[in-house]
Every structure is written in structure tokens, then in C-alpha cells.
Design goal:
Layout (H helix, E strand, L loop, with lengths): L7 E5 L8 H14 L4 E5 L5 H11 L4 E6 L1 H13 L2 H5 L2 E6 L5 H6 L6 H10 L2 E12 L5 E6 L2 E5 H16 L2 H12 L6 E7 L2 E7 L1 E5 L17 E6 L4 H12 L9 E6 L1 E7 L4 E3 L2 E3 L6 E13 L3
Parallel strand pairs: 1-2, 1-3, 3-4, 4-16
Antiparallel strand pairs: 5-6, 5-16, 7-10, 7-14, 8-9, 8-13, 10-11, 11-12, 13-16, 14-15
Helix pairs in contact: 2-3, 7-8
Length: about 300
């Protein structure tokens, strides 16, 4: 059966372990109905189900797909769209109602978890902007050539490990602040630098590095000047500071002044080649991935996704 082009397909990704998830969806549903928005919705019971449900919506012909979720669910959605034929992808607009642990891409555009009404009003205006995606191309442990797209950033090294800890502790504490502080305590037991060999533009970095962030957008505060529509990636390379400077760096991160730290070296580029990053964890849009085998590259693809932005 053909789907009405004005009908939204909504994927609801509840916050796991949060008791108020059902109440939040009820509030969203009532808000949609009050605004006479026609929609069908499905609920993802676990992260593995997001890809299957998004592909189902694409194949069923929905032209507006709205994710009620966080950065990881949004990442799955854009990867599904990039797997579709270009003609199909360009006929679909992707929207977001933030409902995740981080919601960094939502915050970049000014969407707030606490203001569902304004978010839905903005989405209803159907203001579309074509946005860029970053892309990592790598070889996995089975020798397969793979690629994965991202909206926010790729982290290599310590911050990737900290973000993984933060997500785990957030589920435990249910609080951003507590999870962040506990992650900082656990950081003491983490490896603080990694032997890396990286090429950015004409610069060769071959030394010990604490962390690298390659941002298509704000990158959880690490690439605060990055924008997902200029065809470029912002890169922050952080050399190993002293322990007191390390905590200063985290303070600057949460206050939006990360680039002011003297150990942070910023770049802007179309491509980053990582020839070596010994035992450094890699995360994409806040989700840990299996460490690539051998060299890998990160590039940007310009204006490939139709995204619904605030009016």
C-alpha cells in the first residue's frame, strides 16, 4: 500500500532503564495529534533493531522519517539512508526529537529534550537543509573493506574510552553530571597516550597522542567551530598534558573553550589518514566500534542528507 507523502514514519527509541519512557512517548504522541500530524510509529526494543526498522520505513516509501532517540540511533538512520539508492535518499527528509543519552547533534541545532512542543512545531514547518556526513573507511578483523558514516565525530584514543565509560555510568547513575565525574575518576586507570602516525593535509604527526577528535559538527565540544555544511572536517589533536593540565582541559571542554588549551592542536581538512594508532579505541558518534585493522581514512561527503532544521 502506498504511503501518503505527508505522513511521517516515526521510530521511537526509549531510554533503556528509564522508568518514565512510556510517559515521554505519550507526551510526544499527544503533541503530534494536537497538531493534526499524520504518522505511523514503531518502537525499537534494542539498539540492534534500529537499522531493521529504518530500512523498513525507507522500503515502505515514507518521505519524512523522524527519530525519537539519541546520537547512536540517528547514526544508524543516516547509515541506512546512505545504503539506499541516491534517488530514494534524496526524496526523504530526516527529522529528530532528542531522546538519547547525549543528543549532541540535536543540541547543535537548538533542539532540547525539555521542549517537545517547539521541536515538533519546527519539524512541522519542514525546513530542509542538506548536510554533510563524515565517513570512515577501514578494514575489519575479517579482512573486509568497510565504511561507516557519522554526523558528529570520530574519537580516537582517551576521549573515546571516557565516552564509553560515561555511557555505561550514565545508565548506572541516570545523571549526566554524576556519570561524567565518575568517568573522570575511572580515567585514572585508563591509558593516557597512544603511539600514532597521522596525516592531516600536509602535516605528518608521528608521536604519542592522548586523543584525536575528527568532527563533522561540534564533536561533543571538542571541535566547537565545526559545521555540517561546509564540506570540511575539523580536527583536534591533543598531546599528552600534565595531570593538572588534563583536568584543566576537561574544564575547558565542558565550558566550551576546549581549543584554548595549549595541548590542543586544531586543523581543518577534507581527509585524515590514520596510518597507526596503537591500541587506541575508536568511537563513532559516541558509540564504541571495534578497532580497525591497519590504516584507515576519514573523509567528508558534502550535502548528502536532507535534515529537518529549526524554522
Amino acid at each position: 500500500m502506498a504511503i501518503d507523502n505527508t505522513r511521517w514514519g516515526i521510530l521511537y527509541c526509549p531510554k533503556h532503564g528509564i522508568k518514565s519512557s512510556k510517559k515521554r512517548w505519550t507526551k510526544i504522541e499527544n503533541c503530534l495529534k494536537e497538531r493534526n500530524i499524520d504518522f505511523d510509529f514503531v518502537q525499537s526494543e534494542n539498539p540492534d533493531g534500529v537499522t531493521r526498522l529504518i530500512n523498513m520505513m525507507i522500503n515502505n516509501g515514507y518521505k519524512t522519517i523522524v527519530i525519537v532517540g539519541g546520537d547512536s540511533a540517528l547514526n544508524d538512520a543516516v547509515n541506512c539512508l546512505m545504503s539506499a539508492d541516491k534517488e530514494v535518499r534524496e526524496s526523504i527528509a530526516l527529522g529528530l526529537i532528542p531522546n538519547g543519552l547525549m543528543n549532541d547533534f540535536a543540541h547543535y541545532w537548538g533542539f532540547k529534550e525539555s521542549d517537545i512542543e517547539k521541536t515538533i512545531d519546527w519539524l512541522k514547518e519542514h525546513r530542509v537543509r542538506k548536510i554533510d556526513l563524515g565517513c570512515i573507511r577501514y578494514t575489519n578483523a575479517d579482512g573486509d573493506k568497510c565504511r561507516r558514516y557519522f554526523l558528529n565525530c570520530i574519537n580516537i584514543g582517551l576521549i573515546s574510552a571516557i565516552m564509553n565509560l560515561r555511557q555505561q555510568t550514565r545508565r548506572l547513575f541516570g545523571s549526566r553530571t554524576l556519570s561524567f565525574l565518575f568517568s573522570l575518576i575511572l580515567m585514572i586507570f585508563q591509558r593516557l597516550d597512544y603511539k600514532m602516525f597521522i596525516k592531516i593535509n600536509s602535516d605528518i604527526i608521528k608521536r604519542k597522542v592522548m586523543t584525536v577528535c575528527i568532527g563533522n559538527a561540534s564533536g561533543y565540544g571538542q571541535t566547537p567551530n565545526a559545521v555540517p555544511y561546509n564540506g570540511l572536517l575539523d580536527v583536534s589533536v591533543v598531546y599528552h598534558p600534565e595531570m593538572t593540565q588534563l583536568f584543566e582541559g576537561f574544564y575547558l571542554l565542558i565550558t566550551g573553550k576546549f581549543l584554548n588549551h595549549h595541548s590542543v592542536h586544531p586543523y581543518r581538512t577534507r581527509e585524515v589518514t590514520v596510518n597507526e594508532a596503537v591500541r587506541a579505541m575508536v568511537s563513532i558518534d559516541g558509540r564504541l566500534m571495534k578497532t580497525p585493522v591497519g590504516p584507515y581514512s576519514i573523509t567528508v561527503e558534502q550535502e548528502v542528507i536532507n535534515f529537518l532544521i529549526p524554522a
